[in-house]
Amino acid sequence: MPPAVTPLFFALVAGACGSGDSGEPGDGPVDAGPDTGADGDSDSDSDSDVDSDTDTDTDTDTDTDSDSDSVSDSDSDSDSDVDPCAVPDADGDGHDSIACGGDDCADDSSDVYPGANDFEWFEELVWDSGANGNYIDPALAVAADGSARVSFHAWVPAGASGADELHVSSNASGAWESDVVDDAAAEGQYVRQSGIGVDADDAVHIVYQIHDGWDAAVFPFDLSYAKDAGAGWELETIDAAGNAREPSMAIDEDGILHAAYTDGSRLDLRYATNPKGGWRTELVDTWATGWSPTSVALAPDGTPSIAYEAYWADGTILRLASLDAGVWARTDVDAIDSGAFAYESLLSIHMVVADEVGIAALLYWREGAFGPTHQEALFASDGAGAWVVETISEDAQAPARCAVDVDGVFRVVHGDPPSAELSHWTQDGAAWSLETLPFTSDNSERVSYLIRDGSEHLVYVDSTADDAIWYATRSLADGVDQDCDGLADE
Ligand SMILES: [Ca+2]
Ligand SMILES: [Ca+2]
Ligand SMILES: [Ca+2]
Ligand SMILES: [Ca+2]
Which of 46, 101, 317, 324 has the greatest number of beta carbons closer than 10 A? Predict the structure, then answer.
């Protein structure tokens, strides 16, 4: 609309400027002339109205309202108006706001946009071995940007047969790409299980077992370490003096490694760390079984604890060793083998700490007294000040892994090879609710699972066709409609 102009104003301007306005029919009321038509001129009459253009806005600037919104413009002049669509994708998620003609229902959150994960599993192929399977134990870590790293060992042809190399796959670029970390086969060696972590600077750390070759009969396994801080993989041997087995690891806030492993020949539990760059290894317990799994977790203050299986008077026990003022303090958590020919054994352990609430939990899988047909997933937590053991499943057919969210709610995932399914348990007060995950996995013994920044991350192996490692992720149910379809968590 043209600016409102009073008759007095017209009179003053007309008196001052004479006949600057041509007064032809069609000239507008903003000019000094007497015409009353729509104004299409360029204000050549030198009147005092501020609008010399042909638009219809009501602002007081002198520019062109190039977006015709009657409020402000989107040009690059030096006026002080604000264009709400100068940056139509304010959160940089690739979707413009709805107000600016786009489809982003929350342009202040880069986690919310059409197609985002809203409590729905997204599944991707990490690695397909073709016919060359025989890799096991994929281990998973997630970087601060939400991208994943998976370490695993892959069989490659070498010599008369083949051997296992250490690989790592990453989806940091948006697609899964694999790197050979240690081509052990070239030196007559082969790799076994690994643990992986990403530190605050995005450096990737891996500990792994490497077999010196078939001639090394006494202490065949070394504990090795690989790190990539962005300039390629650096490999180091942490411990070649013993027979390093069952490694596990955690990375602290300063990028320091805390690793646990057993000496399978001496039946020791050992700890390795590198606080000043060099390696320090120490004996934690001489009563470890030597071939049972270990699991490391860090308390909120960075103190490491190691869960493992130890001998006790009448059998074996699940034990926790925690570093306390430089001394390993040991706590017995649960009897595994009651002795007297029970033959129960611990097959896997996974320890996690809920940082916010300081509760540690041990998720372990054991073969019961009646052999492979009786395998239990058990959960021990110290939230009440003493360890309390719960049975999650009396029929868990594969090792389980657990994770915890920021609210201190634990979740557990394990395979069920007979049914080719993955089971997912969520702690629900004193009970555990079961969900069967929608994946095909006929070799789902091999899972790795964690929660980071409100999303679950899972890797598992599917041997239905080729042996293939798959990665799956979903955002946790949170009452937020991340994918802009109008429904939260659907
Ligand atoms: Ca956006
Ligand atoms: Ca958004
Ligand atoms: Ca939704
Ligand atoms: Ca949601």
Answer: 317
